[in-house]
Amino acid sequence: MITIILMALALALLQIWIIPMLINIKNIGYQLSNRDEPMNSGSLNARILRASTNLQESLPSFLALAILSIITEVDNSMLAMTWLFLRVLFFFVYAVGIPYIRSVIWIGSIACLVLMGLALI
Fold first, then answer.
1. Which helix (H) or strand (E) holds 2?
2. pTM here?
3. Can you tell me the distance from the alpha carbon of 59 to that of 49, in angstroms, rounded to the nearest whole number?
4. Which of 12, 107, 109, 116 could form a disulfide with 86 if both were Cys (CB 3.0 to 4.6 A apart)?
5. Taking the domains of the chain in order of start, what are their residue ranges?
6. Is 85 exposed, middle or buried (0-12, 13-18, 19+ CB in 10 A)?
7. In degrees to the nearest 10, what's the CA dihedral of 29, 50, 96, 84?
8. Burial of 2 (0-12, 13-18, 19+ CB in 10 A)
9. Closest C-alpha to 23, from 50, 42, 51
């Protein structure tokens, strides 16, 4: 489970910081500024930022459930790995701009969190 937690944190680092920075390298001046004004970004960058925000909303719940699984010695590793796989898939589907499949993937990732929580009861 610890490996899955570390992979989830690596995903967060990639999705929240590294990938948006690399895609938006042409606006390096903005990234080095005080960022007083909103950045003028393209649709790909905007979708990636929305996917990152979505991960930031889901990641704390996942981390709490994963840590509780370790503490209580409940094996939620398959659900945690499925959640991680769905979150990676969600990022790519969101970045490409496929709306309906993206929603189904998101529901699957939320279902994994619910099932992880139920396993702890």
1. helix 2-13
2. 0.87
3. 15
4. 109
5. 2-24+44-119
6. middle
7. 110
8. exposed
9. 42
pLDDT, residue 33, reads 75
Q: Are 102 and 93 in contact (CB under 8 A)?
A: yes
CA gap 61, 38 in Å, rounded: 29
Query: What average pLDDT does the structure give for the chain?
Result: 91
Give the Cα separation of 61 and 106 in Å (integer).
14
Instruction: Round to whole Å and give the CA distance between 17 and 120.
Output: 32
pLDDT for position 42: 76
35 phi and psi angles, rounded to 5 deg: 60, 45
Query: With 70 as the cut, is the pLDDT of residue 31 above it?
Result: no
d(CA 78, CA 83): 9
Predicted pLDDT of residue 6: 98
Question: Which pLDDT band holds residue 21 (cuts at 50, 70, 90)?
Answer: confident
